[in-house]
Amino acid sequence: MQVQSVCHDTLPWLISFSLDLFHASMPTVGVFASIFDSTSRILLVRHAYGTRRWSTPGGRVEPGESPLAALHREVSEEIACEIRIGPLIGVYAKPYRDDVVLSFAATIISGIPQPRPPEISDVAFLSRDCLPPDLAFNSRVRIDDALEERRGLVRVFDTATSLDSSFDTHARSHAKA
What pTM was computed for the model? Predict the structure, then answer.
């Protein structure tokens, strides 16, 4: 058996290249909480950066962090509340962006929702008929699923503005009747 020798000068580069290649193929994972008040309005946050769109509280899972720990951290960072995480509403995949989002039902166990700068500029409980018109398509789908009290969904987005129809039927079969 032959063993190929690697020069010490190239070893750090090879390790770095291998890790970059490994991480490049890993999808990003996001987690979001659907929190309702006593009148069934959903809590939305408005980001203070980028397109300043509204969404449910949440964000990216950091390396080495569990999705549940990430959701607790993100909600605390964005609205200064502690939550109890409930059932999984759905898994939302965007293969064209190598992105997967987990959406959970949640309830506030301490704190009063308030925007936490610099990340969040506004916080509001909104009814379905008062949702902002400029919600991103994927956020609207997640929010609609939460408002319909659906659980255990799998949704795959073809593009930023359409669902893969083969998964839409599957998702409806798991929806609350």
Answer: 0.79
